[in-house]
Amino acid sequence: MNSSDARFDDGFNENTVASDGPLKAIAENPAAYDSYLQHLQSVLLQMKRNVETLETHVRVHARSQRVQGDKWGQAWLRALPLEHSVRSMISDLESTTKQMEKSAHRHHAHAEKVQEIARQRKDKALEKARKKNPLPQAVPQQQSPQAGQTQNSGYAGPTTLWGLDDRDSA
């Protein structure tokens, strides 16, 4: 690779792909993904606490930087862009940690959905195979009509008034 090719390096080369092996394994496993994001989130939260402390010190230092001849509030106005950039950094860290948590939830939901789809397709294939090759049904044995009446007393009996025959209705 010559120097002109280095300017257009997209980061995907043999060395990068080989070192991404552990991340590939993490991406494939929702539990490992959660664990990795929790670690990154804890690092970002620690970084956020440090930046918040830094924000306080920057505010105090920047607002106290007065130049001879300053009018009231000029030092404060000069410090506003710096304070705003530090607050923006804190806001970005907060949103990044929230997005990490949301990503972990979505990764679990995706894994569950994939498992559910696989199960549904398996059930559908079994149902299709069952419809193609139905099991032979056992032929019911013929019973005498009087034996049927004694066994059908109760809820399994006739379902209409005309099917009552010689029985009394309620």
Description:
By secondary structure, the chain is an all-alpha fold. It contains six helices and no strands. Helix 3 packs across helix 4 and helix 4 (30-64) packs antiparallel against helix 5 (74-132). The longest helix is centred in the middle third of the chain and has 59 residues, at 74-132. It starts with a helix and ends in a 19-residue tail after the last helix.
Labels describing this entry:
elongated; mainly alpha; 170 residues
Task: Describe, in short, the structure shown.
This protein is an all-alpha fold and 170 residues long.
Q: pLDDT under 50 segments (min length 5)?
A: 3-12
Major sheet summary line: none
* Helix/strand/pairing category: mainly alpha
Amount of helix: over 70%
Q: What is the CA-atom radius of gyration, in angstroms? A: 37 Å
For the secondary structure, the number of strands is 0
Overall pLDDT confidence: 78
Helix count from the secondary structure assignment: 6
Outline type:
elongated
**How large a portion of the residues is in β-strands, by DSSP E?**
under 5%
The helix/strand order is: HHHHHH
Q: Separation of termini?
A: 96 Å
Spell out the blueprint of helices and strands.
Elements: H1 3-6, H2 14-19, H3 21-28, H4 30-64, H5 74-132, H6 145-151
